[in-house]
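Example: TonB-dependent receptor.
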Amino acid sequence: MKQFFPVLLLAATVPVATFAQTPPATTVSATKGPGRLSGRVLDATTQKPVEYATVALLPATGTVPLLGGTCDADGRFELRDLPTGAFRLQISFVGYGSLVQPVTITAEPQNLGNLTLTASAQNLAGVTVTGERPVVETKPGRLVYNADQDASNAGGTATDILRKTPLVNVDGEGNVQLRGTGNVRILLNNKPSALLAGNLAEALKQIPADQIKAIEVITAPSAKYDGEGSGGVINIVLKKNSLQGTSGSVGASGGNRNQGLNGSLNTKRGKVGLNTKLSGFRNLYPFKSLTERTSYLPGGGTGQLTERTTSRNQGRGGYGQLELTYDPSPLHSFTVSGNGNLYRNSTPQELFNQYQGQPRLDTLYTRDILRQDESRNFDLNAGYTRTFGEQQPRREWSVLAQHTNNRSQGQYRLDQFPTTELYGGPVEYREASRNLARNLETTFQTDYTHPFGEKNTLELGAKHIGRQVRSDYTLDTLLVSRQTDFARSIPRSNRFDYRQNVLAAYGTYNFSLGKKYAFSLGTRLERTGIAGEFQNEAGRFQNDYLNVLPNLSATRTLRKDGQTLRLSYSRRIQRPQIYFLNPYVNQVTPSSVSFGNPRLRPETADLLELGYGTFSEKGSFNGSAFVRRTGNSIEQFSAYNQALARNETTFGNLATVYNYGVNLYGSWKPLKHWDLSSNLSADYTRLYSTVLQGTNSRASLYMNINSSLKLGKTYTVQGYGGFWTGGVQLQTRYSGGVYYGLSAKKLLLAEKADLTLGLNNFLAPGREFRSTTTTPDFVNYGSFYSYQRSFRLSFNYRFGKLEGGQRQRRSIRNDDGKGSGSGGQQGG
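Written out as structure tokens, the predicted fold is:
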């Protein structure tokens, strides 16, 4: 580790030093004159602006630019004080072919209108392959990790990709954090998905990396987004083609951790398009854990607990998607789509338990446990988008609808033996539990964008989300010495119904002052109505609340070569999802039980962020500093039940949380075929609870590096690595870890196929993650050992031919709910 850290630090600082030495793009030795050129650069296929494309004025012969500049975020540029005469105008951007055209400059200003760039492409034996993009792109308001440009992702899962995404951290148990907080909403193609509504850590393992195009990280969303909480939005963009023609792919991967098959078929003929995906997979993630707890008893005594668990987490399932598009004219677009998945997970466990200190409650036993989970999910989407032609290119109206269904069933059975050895004697106790949870969600949304002049726009929208959640749970017990069959435990069986309705409206005005300043002023109004009840008790409750969520940002262009400075403020709301609300008591490990709190209230967060970004032909740099305050924060907390000698964990609106952080990201091309990038994040978190009268705080550091090198036309080698130093919760401090990997890719069959070999975390079988929970009642030391050494071999084959004609389409984003600390939003 001591040797690894300086290498990473050097990689992070190299891009910064590079940009500090890069001269402005407004070059060289041109004589000033009265001429002026302006225009707008668009993507030839999508007709969308090419943000920050490079514009250079060249002499009629020769290649040394006389003057240069950069387009703004709307693709517009203007070159002033130009000499008169005959010249050439060159426009270029990464991933596009350069445009060079002759221009004659006079004393009169000239507007060249729309100029188009075509994505770099080459036809490989009937397959059109789009030109390469950088692995990470810095765009206004977001960072984009182009996963399909990273060879080491082949054969992996969405979890592997997120671990390498800037600003994102995934720990050993699959928990996702963004800039130091787990309060983050993950979307699939800009929409919530029933696939992600259950246990998110498991769901991310179900999405093949070979079907993922990019990961978008949005840290300060505008008022158009739902009140998704303090962390921000992570959007997983799946590969899709809306180009004329037919294309597709098939792939297979095998390894010691996961195996899978996947395929896609995309076709468009005239006004009708069809996109399909299908995948199947298996995975294996063994682990072992240790818990050592000291409980403080009345009278000064202590209770000592030791628990050891060995487990093999085995999963299998499949995912499918079908999308139909219909474009009757250039001004109208319809989309209907559906996707679904089936996932089964089996987790056999062996548990050793020993407790000493309270003779009446002392225990010594082993348990053979089999936990099985199954989830069935589907999404149905429909949308209509209306545009208004070249006369009003930024005017747009859309209507969208979505229905999602998440059905999950979890169950376990256990046999308990009164000895230190499993199966060492007769069974003394048996237990069986079942939890059936269902989450229905229906959304209607409309958005309208109206332009004022060339740069100002007004965005308006309204939305309704209706959620219905049910959790039906039962538990049966069998004490062998007293019973002949299982009997229902009434106190531990119940049914919970929960309904939530959200009405929202927003307005955002985007405008510019001069050529250097751009502003966005927005407000979102959300009303939430909640009602819940228990079947077996008088447990009805209701909670309604109204939230005003302002959003402000100001951007200043520092120089013409793309340097920008952005200051933003936003307030977001975060509602608890079913994982936090479900009162089902999980007693697989009876000494440490957990359950939800159906009476949780939402939390609100205020975020102030200052960001700086720049780029050049050799790379890019993005830096930001932020302060975030979260009030009424939903936090996990534990208490010791002395009567039952067990630790009970649930959630409450317990704390005020302050986060202070700095994020630095840089990419660099030392050579034409060599890419380097690195991300460094540092933050300080302080939690204070008046309810528990406690404070916890910690400084954390996260860093990664990614390097890719092309060897000739058909070989690519890549390496990546990173570390994080751990984090803090209200009562808990947990350790960090290190990850790394190497891969090599070979293009085959006239570059229509590729074969990739990847090795990850290969220097050790696994890694231990530690945590310490401290309360007035007990101190708990835990360790979790995850077997992470893996290898995989992947093969992908592409076919078909594409011809252009892609359109942008609107989609629903439901990103207002807080998921579980383990990424879950499940029903039990």
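The first helix runs from residue 4 to 20.
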